[in-house]
Amino acid sequence: MALAVALIGSAVAAQGPASGPGAPLTPEPAATAPQVPVRGGGVHPLTSEDLSGWLDGYMPFALRSGDIAGAVVTVVQDGRVVAAKGYGYADIAKRRPVDPATTLFRPGSVSKLITWTAVMQQVEQGKIDLDRDINTYLDFKIPPRNGQPVTMRQVMTHTAGFEEAIKDLINTDPNGSLPLGTYLKRWVPTRIFDAGTTPAYSNWATSLAGYVVQRVSGMPFDDYVERRIFAPIGMRTATFRQPLPARLRPLMATGYPRASEPAEKFEMVVPAPAGSMSASGLDMAKFMAAHLNQGRGLLRPETAAAMHDSSLARVDPMSLIPPLNRMELGFFETDINGRSVIAHLGDTENFHTSLHLFMYERTGLYVSFNSAGKEGAAHTVRSQLFQDFADRYFPGPAPTGRVDAETAKRHAQMMVGLWEGSRHSQSNFVDILNLVGQTAISLDDKGGLVIADLKGPGGEVRKWDEIAPFVWRDRNGHDRLAAKVIDGRVVRWSFDMVSPFTVFDPVPAHRALSWLKPALIAALAVLLLSVLYWPAAAILRWRFKAAPSVSGPALRTYRATRLMALLTLVMLGGWAWFIISAFSDLDKLSSKANGTLWFLQIASAIVFVGAVGVAAWNVWLTWTDGRKWTRKLWSVLVLLAALLVLYVAATFHLLAMTVNY
């Protein structure tokens, strides 16, 4: 892909200037400096000249073909800027180009690295113990699960066991932020996994860590990171404050869903320590350089090593699936070509970012986009840019190995089934996404793995080759996939791109889409036909002047059954409308939706339970008053349909009676 992009993109002029290639990362980067020496034995030397030429061919084509407005790329090595490049536009309407030194991007969850650095500073000062009950530092309580508390180490490695928290994640109201303590105390997400056993990414838990820093340091979180992190290493444009301070507002890049679509407002990230930072590309270069140089200016070398080295992070082995990438203390591995790489990714609705540190090569790569682009193109470009950068400058052998054909088929067969990701909500209406979002594994005609949800950069379903027992490699890429086997049964799997913070566990039989999907389709068909038959029968009776076949209580129950069938369909339609509209715009997943959510839950409880009761009474009357067998059968089908709808609503928490999610 790199060659194709470079060849096509070379005809496209580079957009935006490079700023200070080869410059030392001081608060005011120098304009010129010697080129960085070759490292890593790559086919191409990592020099400013080679890298700038490659990026100038790669990025403009990627932006234009992906309908992405703009991007910033910075690369550092040995404490110097190799390249700092802006591409496309920070503001399309004003034709303002991206400037890597001054244009602010929103790195989303890459902000967490600032928060984790702050935590480790407090560990150095003896104010935080990574393995102590986190309640020690709080003015509210995190309930234990199976007698086990949460520790800061588990928070930093996303193994505290919290379910996903989505409400008030991002909005565009300038007054839409909440004080950190208020946000955290209003609802503690349910711990759905035992501590230390399962990686499950949590923005809420990261915000909890920021709150601990605020409490033990005695400084508001925004003040703390400015004084203790940004100022010491000269990150002059960086801030977590929302809305932006007046001096920084003119520097902010505008966010777009796609370059061809209207601009959107500044995004307010409510769990601020998890993702509210704004910063220029060169300021992020300074942050990378500090961590690549043993935390210089921020941390002691031994503290930085604890953040960067998996052997020192002391992650609970129960949460790991060797040999896949794993969490460090805040960073996570994205090893490639035999190189040790730690990283973080970040996304708001409009900004999409990645930061990768090649630890032994002392090289950092940062890229951020101000639009998702066509079909989420920014996600593909940032992933491919990292892989192509590594292949060009730090190549190495791909994982190799072979499992005999019969064993490979047997292992693949053991993977077949439905699986759900560990990062999910479970105690509220968002649980319904776990029904429609189940990941299916099947086999191709040669007995190989087929995971339709895992697609390559071109949209093709990936092909997996088993290179060791229960370890597969993407035939056309770098990712590995591996499974954990206990007592001859696959109990968990993941793949490199997400394995540090998400694993896949078997879907319990009572929640499996394999039987619920056809059952729901049949149930909805029965309810819809019942509703349609009601007016059709009435028209026919009127046309032929015929009397109803039943009267009295039986007639009233017959009509009530049809009415409840109609109301059931209406409520299901209401849920579908709410979920689709809300998840297409996170601004709607806020306290503003409380009224709608309460109505849907209360009305659904009344309608779904009522439908079962009325349908059951109709079955009794139909079977005891001598009606034809066809009517008896249909009455039973209607009851079963109503029962299934109630079962799904209860099992997937549409009736949870809460507006916390």
Task: Describe what this molecule looks like in 3D.
The chain is an alpha+beta fold. Helix content is 38%, strand content 14%. The protein is built from 17 helices and 19 strands. It has helices spanning 2-9, 48-66, 112-124, 152-156, 180-185, 203-217, 221-230, 281-292, 301-308, 310-313, 377-393, 405-415, 433-436, 513-544, 553-583, 594-624, 629-651; strands spanning 70-77, 80-91, 96-97, 104-105, 170-171, 268-269, 279-280, 332-333, 341-347, 352-358, 363-369, 417-421, 439-443, 449-450, 464-468, 471-474, 480-486, 489-495, 504-506. The strands form 5 sheets. It has a 7-stranded antiparallel β-sheet, with helices on both faces. Strand 17 and strand 18 (489-495) form a beta hairpin. Helix 1 (2-9) crosses helix 2 and helix 3 (112-124) packs across helix 7. The longest helix has 32 residues, at 513-544. 47% of the residues are buried.
